[in-house]
Amino acid sequence: MEYAIEISGLTKKFGDFIAVDHLDLKVYKGEIFGLLGPNGAGKTTTIRMLCGLMAPTEGSIKILGYKIPEERNEAIRKIGYMAQRFSLYEDLTVYENMEFYGKLYGLKGSLLRERILKLLDFLELSEFKDRLAGKLSGGMKQRLALGVALIHNPSLLILDEPTAGVDPSLRRAFWNYFRNLNKEGTTILVTTHYMDEAENCDRIGLMSKGKLIAIGSPRELKRKAFGGDVIELKIKGDINSLPLKILETRKENDITIVRAVLNDISKELPNIFNLLDSHNIKLISVEPINISLEEVFIKLLGEIP
Amino acid sequence: MSVFVVVIKELKQFRRDPRSLIMIAMIPLIVMILFGMGYGGEKGKVNIGIVNLDKEALSWTLIDSIMKVKDLNIKAYGNSIEEGRKLIEDGKVSAVIIIPNGFTYGIIKNSSVQLLVIVDESIPTISSMIKSSILYVTYKFQEELSLRAQGNFIEIIYNSVYGPTVTNIEAFTPLVMGIVLQLVPTTLISIAICREKEKGTFEQLIMSPISKFDIIFGKFIAFFIATIANMLITLLVAIYVFNVSIKGSIIDAMLISTLFLIGSLGLGILISVLSRNQLQANQAAIFVFIPALLFSGTFVPIDMLSYFAKIIANLTPMYYFTSAFRDIMIRGVSIWDVSWQTLVLIIYAVLMLTIALKTLKLRVD
Ligand SMILES: Nc1ncnc2c1ncn2[C@@H]1O[C@H](COP(=O)(O)OP(=O)(O)OP(=O)(O)O)[C@@H](O)[C@H]1O
Ligand SMILES: [Mg+2]
What we know:
The structure holds two protein chains of two kinds. Chain A has two domains: 3-222, Rossmann fold; 228-303, 2-Layer Sandwich (Alpha-Beta Plaits), CATH 3.30.70. Chain A contains ten helices and 14 strands. By secondary structure, chain A is of the alpha/beta class. Helix content of chain A is 34%, strand content 31%. In chain A, the strands form three sheets. Chain A has a six-stranded mixed beta sheet, sandwiched between helices. By secondary structure, chain B is α/β, with parallel strands linked by helices. Chain B has two domains: 46-161, 3-Layer(aba) Sandwich (abc type-2 transporter like fold); 167-364, no CATH class. In chain B, 65% of the residues lie in helices and 10% in strands. Chain B has a five-stranded mixed beta sheet with strand order 2-1-3-4-5, sandwiched between helices. In chain B, helix 3 (57-68) links the parallel strand 1 (46-52) and strand 2 (72-78). In chain B, helix 2 (18-39) packs antiparallel against helix 7 (168-190), helix 7 (168-190) runs antiparallel to helix 14 (317-331) and helix 8 packs parallel to helix 11. The longest helix of chain B is centred in the middle third of the chain and has 30 residues, at 212-241. The model of chain B has no long low-confidence stretch (mean pLDDT 86). The A-B interface holds A 48, 51, 53-55, 73, 76-77, 79, 81, 83, 85-92, 96, 100-101, 103-106, 132, 145, 148 and B 2, 5, 9, 12-13, 16-17, 199-204, 206-210, 363-365.
């Protein structure tokens, strides 16, 4: 069984409104999969259906080989879940929250204690263990929520905007945790609005208006958005007559700066030199452009009707 | 067992919630003291009942005059002599005045008429006070009528019985118990589940391997432990502060109270399952309390209610509780003698918890 998550035809209607629209998605075991999309795209709704927290209007779901909702009881023992909204008990302490959930998963005695202390240490929460959860700062709350999601050593982590409202250094720390967990074999499904975080994902699914409009690794998505790899050429001369897919040109003094798309940069770059040479255009420099995912998404989202 | 994990968690949260703790400790005291001040002691008005078999003009005039007597309070009306007797036997009133059929006609025809007065002689000061009050009323009544109906004569026939000797506060104790045991547990537990939904904690909770049973019974047991204190506080205040005597076994009184407490918690948890938020839950808890209070038979005897109100009365578990508790407390019967009420309360508790269990959905929607 190679998939951690398999969903097909997943649909959720709220009255007439279609929040999730015939979604097909497969997440491999062992990958970090990022679900991205603008507000209201349907990410949370999708995740809630995956977890059996909401009944789908249509479609089928399999998590770690278990059918949802039929075999939900088996599945949730292996899922660690962090909701978009903080959902732990504000009138219990950090330790009590973790203890409560640990016990529900059947951990007890010194085993439970050690597990909690280890997680608190890992999440740098040890000194706050007796503080009421309601009195924690936003970032601490998120760390506690992650701690609870990890209490039972889940093999699949489902995290809905775990880094919302978290400062940049803590965000980096979170992604370090995720990568470490991922190295140990944990599959992670995560949603975020931060594009720099999305770069860390093995694969990304881009959602808009309940539909998955693009899926692939960050590099694949960039190539998909622009039809290939983007390079930037600085030249002297007129380039418009050349058979090149040009995105934009701009002039600085007598130098023309051109952005062009190549199907495959490693194969076509030598041809470019020849092409320019044969047209007597002087090449000053050429470099591959690392396009931000932000640009990619704006382009992909702009293309849909 | 996950259910005990939930119990411990709930109790921890409870300990940190001063509002609930105050409610548990204070409401029984407040309700008891209010009733104690309002109705307690030997002083104040004496409750009497009226059975009007005449139903003609002059009988109403007489009743009007009785109402004006400052020491008497007409607490109940009965439709027959039997009902009148029962009012005394149940300790609801200390005397019943029976206006016979033909009372008005007799006075108009200038023939002598009779009034039958059944008096509870168990507290001599009260019975003699009642007798002198009635004598005074009838004298005044005759005086007012003297122009129209000269020389007629109302004869008062006393019929002495020995009632259960209840002080006013004792008469109200079953109602106080009912109020405390419905209002406090139902209101407290009514937010138990919908608060989790409102605050979002429900979403995390149901992602753990927890069953509906664990959630419902975990909360139920925790609130049971917390509110059993209510029952004990109310009973102890009644017995030691207001000198209320329980004629039957105190264990039976506690058993029937516990049973009603369980039903109230069941009702509260059902409200919690059905409510969207805490405000709605609190309102629902108060809303179901009102008919229970009005129709439980303590303010107005059930027999006097309209047909429709009687049906409602028979649907309120509070009615069954107060009537069973009154019998144990005042008539000194055992819980086996009120097995019908006990059975109703058991069915009520089981039904509430079962419906709550069936209606709870482990979903966020
Ligand atoms: N319970 C509900 N009832 C009605 N509409 C809902 C409900 N839950 C979500 N929606 C609607 O479904 C759409 C998708 O919401 P969802 O929360 O899944 O978006 P999202 O992609 O998670 O957005 P965000 O990035 O803001 O978290 C929204 O338009 C939302 O208003
Ligand atoms: Mg969301």
